[in-house]
Amino acid sequence: MAAGSAIQIPSRLPLLLTHEGVLLPGSTMRTSVDSPRNMQLVRSRLLKGTSLRSTIIGVIPNTSDPTSDCDDLPSLHRIGTAALAVQVVGSNWPKPHYTLLVTGLCRFQILQLLKEKPYPVAEVEQLDRLEQFTNQHKSEEELGELSEQFYKYAVQLVEMLDMSVPAVAKLRRLLDNLPREALPDILTSIIRTSNQEKLQILDAVRLEERFKMTIPLLVRQIEGLKLLQKTRKPKQDDDKRIVAIRPNRRINHIPSTTEDEEEEEDHDDVVMLEKKIRTSSMSEQALKLCLKEIKRLKKMPQSMPEYALTRNYLELMVELPWNKSTKDRLEIRAARILLDNDHYAMEKLKKRVLEYLAVRQLKNNLKGPILCFVGPPGVGKTSVGRSIAKTLGREFHRIALGGVCDQSDIRGHRRTYVGSMPGRIINGLKTVGVNNPVFLLDEVDKLGKSLQGDPAAALLEVLDPEQNHNFTDHYLNVAFDLSQVLFIATANTTATIPPALLDRMEIIQVPGYTQEEKIEIAHRHLIPKQLEQHGLTPQQIQIPQVTTLDIITRYTREAGVRSLDRKLGAICRAVAVKVAEGQHKETKPDRAEVGEGEDCKEHVTEDAKPESISDAADLALPPEMPILIDFHALKDILGPPMYETEVSERLSQPGVAIGLAWTPLGGEIMFVEASRMDGEGQLTLTGQLGDVMKESAHLAISWLRSNAKRYQLTNASGSFDLLDNTDIHLHFPAGAVTKDGPSAGVTIVTCLASLFSGRLVCSDVAMTGEITLRGLVLPVGGIKDKVLAAHRAGLKRVIIPQRNEKDLEEIAVNVRQDLTFIMASCLDEVLNAAFDGGFAVKPIVEHLNSKL
Ligand code: ADP
What's the CATH number of domain 332-509, 3.40.50.300, 3.40.1280.10, 3.50.50.60, 3.30.1640.10? Predict the structure, then answer.
């Protein structure tokens, strides 16, 4: 040990002048650096230096007046401590400064000041901890008695402290392990001493002198501690007495100080909290933990940050609905009526939900699958979830998972973190206050992943009926039974749901609505709801079905009804203004004006334009009730139509065909355009296409090239090799949206066939289907959404793969009646249906026959 403590410091040291205390060898000090000289030292020596030597500095106690810290170097104290800069922390607030953590190594004395600016550097001589010094057995012998005496006092002092504090226990061990000559310095820096006393110890270069000077300091500290312990005991008794007489004091109405009151209140609160914990119905495990925590809380001073944390935790534990639940009032017939009343259409979904509820009615502790509604936005997934809660008479809570990428969002943070809190599941339970709510996990397909873990993995535990009866939130740190919670999930697409999570759920597809369904939904649900929200009555506003259809076809293009709902809201707002204005005017009892107004109204009706709200306003009269919303009014309120049926216009040139695409937002029609130009047989594809789609394009070209002769397709120079001296460009509009999938195959073939034959594709036909190199048409997914999109766009015929015929059964009868379906099993059939008068094959076969 003695050899290990030998130190060799550089002979030149930069000097740090400190006002804040005296650093002694073997101790550590934190000092703030803000004088220009010291800042310069930190910057150029500590922050730029790379070697260990460069972090050794000389710390000199600055005995001059700190306020007179001017440019001139004050007279330096002769002896200082060489120190190792362990940490440098910079800050700009409230002014630029550094905080240095320095550990003292050994004493040195300044021999000569080498330079003063920008910071002082001196030639120094090391005074202790030198090799020859630490090995001097002689000196140890001489000092034997003195050092033994010192050691005894040191031990006595340390043992008077609370040994359960780890730092004290460590100090006790150090006393035995450290070389004796290091003890005076270390103990002086620990016990209560003035800077002046420390300075004297620093100046005591001879060890003997140092021991002699430190012993009185130790003795003083021991006496002080003894005195403190004596006074503390009766004080504790006093405390008890105070607690005991407190109730009396209240009765006697002796005014207490506010501080006392606060303390008393807090004490009462903790007692109340304990009472609540004991009477709450939490699990045994949780109760044990809570009682332990409350015991800790009682001992903790309130100023400790942990006090508030522990208290919050305990309050949450008490608030959680451990055993509190609502009683299910499930009656299937009533549930059916309620679901039908709340939602129009969605037969498949309602049927499955009723089945699910029926099983629950028969077997209460059902560990059934988690239902997951998958469909485009605005088709009523969330609102069905809400209806399920209503039918069961349960509380409803929605947990939005979109964008959640931290697993502690689901499972909470451990309480060791600052600002830790429980996850969304436990928070939700606290909000609803019962342990059997309906939790709607919204947008499970939009869960993210990040460095903070995978929230989907955390959800697995929540959703697994086998595991979730003892779900452990990191914050709670005890299991909470989630098995009574009814989880329902929603998503736009299953493609991005992690497979393990998907496996836990039963997927129920909720397709988009047909126009007729939307009209019904609007008139049965959306319009009455909007009227109520805007304080209007059917006597004040009338929206005929044709207007709704206009809104659906010309102002919205969506699978669900959300933007339809918004448009209806906009109409209601506009009408509300008119009605309010009207009411205001009606309150002015000007009969003549009203009479005149009646004339005007008649006049307007003759003009067949009473409906235009702006016109009504121009007349400065209360509008005629009910205000009829027709197409003119619609234009006034919503502006010019956003979507026009542009299908026939776009198909006025060869090289354009309509495909059908599926997106998470529902089906879409998609125009595929092709053009050709002189070139070297290159194919250019644009419109953000995925790999599969690019392959479809190559397949289509290859098939057409191999069948060019059969169909008499030639390029510009009349050659059957379609790519000979020709470049082809295929474009899929709405270039910002990534498109992928094989189902555009038939559309690309049709589009290219149109380009090379110069014939127009029929403007009322849309198509979907995957192709093979041999010209077969293979089935694809999303037929229902695609057909609905074609129907929305006003197309009349849809070409689908033969093997998708079965999917048509799911489509509403009225849509099926409006459309003609062409089932194609090969590309010949597709082309024949896509072109007026068919796309005849040249009878090469006949020719061959005659030869035979
Ligand atoms: P999602 O969760 O599918 O995105 P929402 O449940 O939020 O959609 O539905 C949007 C709005 O449309 C809600 O106000 C809902 O009441 C209404 N809605 C959707 N489908 C129907 C329906 N079939 N019948 C009645 N209202 C519906």
Answer: 3.40.50.300
